[in-house]
């Protein structure tokens, strides 16, 4: 079953064709980084306009790389939320019209479900129950997955997402846009114990996250010490260490509580080198296998959406022509 | 549908009125529309399906998909264009990009047929201040003030100085123009007043989009689906802000 996956939830126009939920036949990501760089962040109206121009060229390139035509497709999967409403609407309107026109089933996919599915883009899928840590510019979530479509959100961020903090602090440190990956590189050369960050007090559910205090502390240190190259490196290293520590803090307890059989990390921040190393160390300690997608499937992509769509369609969960985009959308089981 | 006849599926989403029509030759075979904001995204495709069924037409027999490409609500434009792109791409058809001001002019022309003196036609789309686009046409259709993004106030001022006779206003911000004109420019002679077109002519209708598309199709004015993108006539505010900043930096 060949599924075309479409994601336009933020600033990348992404498409992929995935066979049977795990074999990637082609994957194209048209980045808008250069367009947004001069504004220091994603400008929603600019992103929406660019998606409109790039939608069909990206789909055509994707099909051409897989040596397929539209008539070879068995279904369309598209992200319908959460994300930037104007951007989502382009992908949803195009995707559902394409599915209707071709007479093939449509699957509306939750963006988080997509990130989780990035770990299923492999021949040997993770076992259930699977504990997922999904970390990106918009999310920091601990999600237990008992089967495809069976999710329990155990923890989520009460304020900023981890990726958002990396990006915002990087901008203030004067690092190029997008800041997260640059901060990761700079942190490698810093002293991670020079600037210390205490663990935040959480006033929500016991497994929830909070990163706004960590962000404020980083910015205060920057103001106090000034932005010398050495300080930038040390703040980056200290911040990275604190965020990774907090992200993984409750993982051992959650494993004990849930009996999960494997650990999966996904989302844009899963490309962070320290998070990858520390997750590796922790899973060895816990004696569970670790799943982290290759870096190209950590950031937004169409392949993860196609995979999630495949499992939905296989379970008979077909979306109707009235599917619409939702800027805010809780992850629910189906 | 007879052999050689042009058949069009037309989409209109530029204002609060969202609709679809099937037009064959000169005739609107089926048409549906609803005037309700924020429903376009989930109601448009089901309406395409319903209108096609009512027309009892296999979509593969269509000549093209037509879409009203603006100016209008930015979000509405994108929902319409992305839907037209998806359908045309799937069916292997071309897209007829119909300028929305042509649609409004055509509706105003029909409504004012036989009036003496014939009114000029002011087209005003975009109720959100940052999205307003305006233009003025002579009764015969020549462009007296070309479409450009600007405020109702600026347009009204130019309108007052460039038109002597009556003006009929169309578009989803027509009432705002009329109100502004009435409150700012009192005491003008009766025959230089700006009045809003009637309900059926004020907002662009899918049937008109389809009828104009048939004419455009005959002239070969269709595009590959990927080129069916909106005519905004306005840069995004962040771009405008950045351009202003660059200008100020140069001045400094």
Q: What can you see in these coordinates?
A:
The complex is a heterodimer of chains A (334) and B (252). Chain A has eleven helices and ten strands. Chain A has 334 residues and is an alpha/beta fold. Chain A has two domains: 2-119 and 296-314, ATPase, nucleotide binding domain (Nucleotidyltransferase, domain 5), CATH 3.30.420; 127-292, ATPase, nucleotide binding domain (Nucleotidyltransferase, domain 5, 2-Layer Sandwich). In chain A, the strands form two sheets. Chain A has a five-stranded mixed sheet with strand order 3-2-1-4-5, sandwiched between helices. In chain A, strands 8-7-6-9-10 form a five-stranded mixed sheet, with helices on both faces. The radius of gyration of chain A is 20 Å and the shape is globular. The relative contact order of chain A is 0.19. The mean pLDDT of chain A is 96. In chain B, helix 1 (40-55) packs across helix 2. Chain B contains eight helices and ten strands. Chain B has helices at residues 40-55, 74-91, 100-111, 152-162, 174-184, 199-202, 206-218, 237-251, and strands at residues 7-12, 17-24, 27-35, 64-68, 94-98, 120-125, 133-137, 143-149, 167-170, 194-196. Chain B has 252 residues and is of the alpha/beta class. At the A-B interface, helix 2 and helix 3 of A face helix 1, helix 2 and helix 8 of B.
Please tally the helical runs of chain B, counting DSSP H or I stretches of 4 or more residues. 8
Alpha plus pi helix count of chain A:
11
Structural class of chain B: alpha/beta
Task: Detail the poorly predicted runs of chain B.
Answer: none
